[in-house]
Structure formats: C-alpha cells, structure tokens
Amino acid sequence: MSANDVLKTIKDNDIQFVDFRFTDPKGKWQHTCYVAGQVNAGSFEDGIMFDGSSIAGWKSINESDMILMPDAGTAFVDPFAAQPTLVLFCDVIEPSTGQAYGRDPRSAAKRAEAYLEYSKIGDTAYFGPELEFFVFDDVRFKSSGNYSFHQLDSEELPVNGDRVYQAGNMGHRPPTKGGYFPVQPVDSLADLRSEMLTTLKAVGVEPILHHHEVAPAQCELGVMFSTLTGTADNVQKYKYVVHNVAHSYGKSVTFMPKPISGDNGSGMHTHQSIWKGGKPLFAGNGYADLSEMCLYYIGGIIKHAKAINSFTNAPTN
C-alpha cells in the first residue's frame, strides 16, 4: 500500500488509532500510538518523533530525539485492540543525517539485502523460520534481597499426573519428550494453535501448518518464507499473535530456549537460500545436490558461529 492507501484505509474503516512499531536491539517490539486524526501524508514524509534514549543501547538523553519512518506497505489492523487500530512497521531514522539509524535492526536487514544486490552474488535472499514456544497456565517468579524462585505450570506437564483439578484430572497428557505428536486430548493445545494461524492469516502472514512439539506444553506454527526484511516483520507478527491469542485463553507463552529442565528446549530453525534472476543458487550437483556456493555458505556460518551467536543467542530470553 502507498501512504494514500493507508490514509484511505483509516477513513474507510473508521480507524481510531495508529500504532507505530519498531524493534529494539534485543528484538523486542516497541510502539507509540497516535490518534488517527493526527496522522496525515506528512507522517509518511517526515516521520514521527520519539525518545530514543529510552531504548537500551541507543541514545543518551542529550541525543534523544529520533524519527520513526512508517512503511506504508506493512499496514494491518490490530486484531487484539479494543478500538479499531492500524499498525505500521517503522524504520528508525537519525535526525542529524536523515539516514537509517545504524542500530535499528530493521534498517540493518534492509542494508544487508541492498549489499547482496550490490555484490552481484544474488538479488534475493529467502528466509523461512520455524519458531518453537511453550504455553503455560501459570507463571510465577520473584527475585528479592533474601530469596528468588520461579515456578511454571501447565496441565500438560507430567508432574500434574496426581493433581486435583476442580473439573477433574482426565490423565491425558504427554510424557517427558512425548509430545511429538499424539492427537487430542493428549494434545490439549490444537484449537489454540489453529486460532493462532487463523489470526496470523488475518494480519498478512501466510500460514502453512501447526503441531505439538516434543516437550509437553511445547508447540510450533509453520508460516511461509519471505525475504530477510519480510521474514523479520513476519516473526514480529508471529510473536505478537502467539502471545496475545494465548493471553486471551488465559495462558502465557514464552520463546525462552530452555524453560523446563530435563526436557526439550525451543529454537528457531531458519531455512536460508540465495536466488538470482528467479533461480536458486544453492541447488547444484555437489554433496547432497548442493552447489559449491551453498557449501561455502554453510562453512561460513560454521566459521563465524560464535560471532553470529552474539546476535542470535545472546540472552536467555
């Protein structure tokens, strides 16, 4: 969509608020919300001012003024807002130069795609992520001066085999490492995952499949691959939808890698390929029908694994 299309959508759908969203260095979605009447063509030309000093690792207080530049093509109606709200992805702009801010993850993705095309190696890189997550019924934690603890619970966890529930304990739950993948009622989260995929489709992410994962209370949704920036945007939608659909069911989702000791953890496998002129450059007649380029690509990932991990696996969350 163009800026004019977005403004027309706001008018035609009686949108009350416009939510401008961006990603911080840790991958978390942040936002600032404007009354729809305050958004006009200038919002897409000059952007929206915000305080960059409030984002960890960005600006000091004396350099706090920064610009959110909305991407009109990313607009979607928020399926969870109580009042009609339109969401726009934004790039972060440095006001002093008018250029994309160097620590903005979305701008970094765009620069990477531009460099690929500049290098003439290929013109498109596709990424297909597989995000795994846990769904809990109860999450409690505390860290204070004299003690700390955390406690997670789900009806699917094997430790609840003898627990007394008000509606009764039916005993249908996967054992440790046994969630891959029996049908309902052992898989108690199938309807939840179906609603997540239906909601993802409504916000512009093409769904493929869903299934229970290996650990009790662990799930995965499959969505269509896209370009680097397109996939990064879709991952933010994915996490937003999964968190909020679960919340509406009275449940809590975490993408943490290892919330349960002694059982499988969660990851985000990411399929990758480089294309040029509509042809896949990773296909070939070498090992496993791969091209020499693909083998070197794999070798590069292995060689630089520690540096890559500083971004892909930096914190526990």
What pattern of helices and strands is seen along the backbone?
A: HEEHEEEEEHEEEHEEEHEEEHH
Note the total helix count.
Answer: 7
Tell me, rounded to a whole number, the average pLDDT.
Answer: 94
Relative strand content: 25-35%
Shape, please?
globular
Low-confidence stretches: none
**How many beta-strand elements?**
16
Report the major sheet. Answer: 7 strands, mixed
Head-to-tail CA distance between termini: 34 Å
Quick summary:
The chain has 317 residues and is an alpha+beta fold. Helices cover 26% and strands 29% of the residues. A hairpin with a 5-residue loop joins strand 11 and strand 12.
Write a structural description.
Helix content is 26%, strand content 29%. Strands 1, 2, 3, 4, 5, 6 and 7 form a seven-stranded mixed beta sheet that branches. Strands 8, 11, 12, 13, 14, 15 and 16 form a seven-stranded antiparallel beta sheet that branches. It is globular, with a radius of gyration of 22 Å. It is built from seven helices and 16 strands. The longest helix is centred in the last third of the chain and has 21 residues, at 228-248. Strand 1 and strand 2 form a beta hairpin. It has helices at residues 3-12, 41-45, 105-119, 190-202, 228-248, 292-303, 305-312, and strands spanning 17-23, 29-35, 48-51, 65-70, 76-77, 85-94, 99-100, 124-136, 138-143, 148-153, 207-212, 218-223, 226-227, 252-254, 268-276, 279-280. The model has no long low-confidence stretch (mean pLDDT 94). The chain has 317 residues and is α+β, with helices and mostly antiparallel strands.
